[in-house]
Amino acid sequence: MMMRTCLCLIRRQTSSRAEVLLGLKKTGFGAGKWVGLGGHVEDGEKPESAAVREVEEESSLVVPADSLEHMASIEFLFPSRPSWDQTAQVYLTWVFDGQPAESDEVSPRWFGEDELPLALMWDDAKYWLPAVLAGRHVDVRITFAADCATVASIEPALG
């Protein structure tokens, strides 16, 4: 069975720009990459509830479930490593309480939405993340190449 995951993109507006909170993954899947906050959806758990739980575990921020806007459904396929296959439900919110704090899993940091560290993220992020932040709903299947690092195909194409 394919692993179910969620991502929550937390945004804020400063006096000069819109920012999004990303985390530098310290352990596990994706270690060393900048990622959206999130993780596994437990059995019987709704993706929205998982997003709220994961954000608090990873950053200490409290996000109300009713503030989450569903923006993307992404299926990630790794033909060379099928155990990595997963689906991700992606949410956006501008509503949060607290200050981001480092956890065992991630070191959070705000980035200007025009200064995303795309070269230091999973290769797929450069395709869908700017679209989601621009307000587009995304529903795609992303297949990774044999190196499990670069995108081989996206269906349907984003553009």
Give the N-terminus to C-terminus distance in angstroms: 30 Å
Mean pLDDT: 96
Can you tell me the CATH superfamily? Nucleoside Triphosphate Pyrophosphohydrolase
Number of domains: 1
Rg computed from alpha carbons, rounded to a whole number of angstroms: 15 Å
State the total count of DSSP E strands. 9
* The CATH topology: Nucleoside Triphosphate Pyrophosphohydrolase
Strand content: 35-45%
Largest pleated sheet: 9 strands, mixed
Number of helices: 2
Helix and strand pattern: EEEEHEEEHEE
Q: In terms of per-residue confidence, which ranges show pLDDT below 50 for 5 or more consecutive residues?
A: none
Name the shape in a single word: globular
Tell me what the CATH architecture is.
Alpha-Beta Complex
Helix content bin: 10-25%
Q: In the CATH hierarchy, what is the class?
A: Alpha Beta
Assign the structural class, choosing from mainly alpha, mainly beta, alpha/beta, alpha+beta, or little secondary structure.
Answer: mainly beta
